[in-house]
C-alpha cells in the first residue's frame, strides 16, 4: 500500500492530472475529449501538466485532413537528443515484413524524417495529438505503430520512445469511436474534461485573475528547467506501477467483470461487440485504481469506475436497421424510437445497473 503522504498528494490532483498519472502507471495511452471551443486551453493545460506535474518533455501536433507523415514525424522528433546509431540491430522499415502492405509501402517510400533532422532529435515523453480523428488514415496508422513498438523509423536510423511515454489523442466534441478501428482499440482510457471544471495549471500562469478566454494565448509551454522538481516523480510512478501489478482481484470480482463484458456484448444497442483488448484494459485499469485509493485489492466500485473509463470510446451504437430483433420482424421505426438518444455512456450505465454486484461483507 502507498503511504499516506503520497495518497494525499494524489487526491489533490485534478481530473486531467489523474488521467495522465493512470496512463503513466499503466504504461498505456488515452483519449481526452472536451468541448471544441476549449481545445486550445486544454492543450496548454496538458503541456503544463506534463512539464510541471510530472517533469516530462512534450510535443504537440495539430492534426487536420492535410497533415502528412512528414508533419507527424517532425512534431514527434522535436526534442534535442543524442544521435541514434544507424547500424541498430532493430529491423528497419525497409526490412519489415509489412513492406508488401500498400499502406506501409507509402510510408516507406516517403521516409518522413530527413537524415540530418533525425540524427540530433529524440521523441518527447508526452505527445499531444490535437484533432487526431481528422488526420488521414496513414497518419493514424503511423501513430498506432508508434504506440505499439515505441519506435519511429527513418531512412537511416530508428528513433526509440523514452521509457515514460504517453500518447494523448485530444478530440473535440462527439461520442463513441472516432479514430480508426485498431488505433481506437489501442487507447487505454477515454476521459471527458468539462471546461467548467477549469484549467488549474493554466489559470496559475495568469497573475491578474482575468478569465482564460479574455487574455491573449501564450505560445507553447516549455519544459521545466533542471531545478524545477516535478510534483509526481518517476519513482512515485514506478512505485504505483509495482503496487498495481500486485493488486488482488478476487474470483467474485472476476465474475462481476465478466458479467459486465457479457452484458455489453449482448446489449441490443451495441454494434460490433466488445474486443478482447478492451477486456485486458478493463482488468488492468481496475488493478491500477487500487493503489490510488490506498488499497491492495480491487472493489466493486473500482470495477464500475474502470468500466466507465474503458468502454465509452469503444462502443458503437447500432443502426436501427441492423438491430438484431429486425431478424424476427421488428418494426424499424419502433427500433429507431427505442435507440433515439442512446449513447455509449447510457449503455454502460445500463450494464452496471443490471449486473451490479452487492458489496461483499
From TrEMBL:
<protein>
    <recommendedName>
        <fullName>magnesium chelatase</fullName>
        <ecNumber>6.6.1.1</ecNumber>
    </recommendedName>
</protein>
<dbReference type="InterPro" id="IPR052041">
    <property type="entry name" value="Nucleic_acid_metab_PIN/TRAM"/>
</dbReference>
<feature type="domain" description="ChlI/MoxR AAA lid">
    <location>
        <begin position="265"/>
        <end position="324"/>
    </location>
</feature>
<comment type="pathway">
    <text>Porphyrin-containing compound metabolism.</text>
</comment>
<dbReference type="InterPro" id="IPR041628">
    <property type="entry name" value="ChlI/MoxR_AAA_lid"/>
</dbReference>
<dbReference type="GO" id="GO:0016851">
    <property type="term" value="F:magnesium chelatase activity"/>
</dbReference>
<dbReference type="Pfam" id="PF17863">
    <property type="entry name" value="AAA_lid_2"/>
</dbReference>
Amino acid at each position: 500500500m502507498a503511504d499516506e503522504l503520497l495518497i494525499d498528494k494524489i487526491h489533490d490532483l485534478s481530473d486531467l492530472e489523474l488521467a495522465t498519472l493512470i496512463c503513466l502507471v499503466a504504461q498505456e495511452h488515452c483519449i481526452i475529449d472536451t468541448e471544441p471551443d476549449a481545445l486550445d486551453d486544454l492543450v496548454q493545460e496538458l503541456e503544463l501538466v506534463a512539464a510541471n506535474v510530472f517533469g516530462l518533455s512534450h510535443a504537440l501536433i495539430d492534426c487536420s485532413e492535410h497533415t502528412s507523415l512528414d508533419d507527424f514525424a517532425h512534431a514527434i522528433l522535436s526534442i534535442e537528443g543524442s544521435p541514434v546509431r544507424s547500424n541498430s540491430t532493430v529491423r528497419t522499415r525497409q526490412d519489415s515484413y509489412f513492406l508488401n502492405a500498400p499502406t506501409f509501402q507509402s510510408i516507406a517510400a516517403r521516409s518522413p524524417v530527413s537524415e540530418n533532422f533525425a540524427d540530433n532529435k529524440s521523441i518527447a515523453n508526452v505527445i499531444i495529438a490535437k484533432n487526431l480523428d481528422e488526420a488521414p488514415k496513414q497518419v493514424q496508422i503511423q501513430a498506432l505503430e508508434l504506440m505499439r513498438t515505441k519506435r519511429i523509423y527513418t531512412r537511416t536510423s530508428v528513433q526509440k520512445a523514452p521509457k515514460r511515454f504517453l500518447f494523448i489523442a485530444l478530440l473535440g466534441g462527439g461520442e463513441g469511436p472516432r479514430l480508426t478501428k485498431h488505433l481506437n482499440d489501442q487507447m487505454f482510457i477515454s476521459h471527458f474534461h468539462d471546461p467548467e471544471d477549469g484549467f488549474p495549471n493554466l489559470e496559475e500562469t495568469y497573475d491578474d485573475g482575468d478569465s482564460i478566454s479574455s487574455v491573449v494565448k501564450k505560445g507553447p509551454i516549455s519544459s521545466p528547467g533542471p531545478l524545477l522538481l516535478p510534483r509526481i516523480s518517476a519513482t512515485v510512478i514506478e512505485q504505483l506501477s509495482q503496487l498495481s501489478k500486485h493488486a488482488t482481484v478476487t474470483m467474485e470480482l472476476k465474475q462481476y467483470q465478466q458479467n459486465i463484458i457479457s452484458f455489453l456484448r449482448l446489449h441490443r444497442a451495441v454494434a460490433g461487440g466488445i474486443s478482447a483488448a478492451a477486456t485486458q484494459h478493463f482488468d488492468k485499469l481496475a488493478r491500477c485504481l487500487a493503489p490510488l485509493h490506498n488499497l491492495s485489492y480491487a472493489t466493486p466500485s473500482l470495477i464500475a469506475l474502470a468500466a466507465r473509463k474503458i468502454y465509452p470510446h469503444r462502443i458503437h451504437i447500432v443502426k436501427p436497421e441492423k438491430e438484431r430483433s429486425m431478424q424476427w420482424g421488428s418494426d424499424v421505426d419502433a427500433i429507431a424510437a427505442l435507440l433515439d438518444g442512446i449513447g455509449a455512456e447510457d449503455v454502460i450505465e445500463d450494464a452496471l445497473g443490471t449486473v451490479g454486484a452487492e458489496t461483499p461483507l
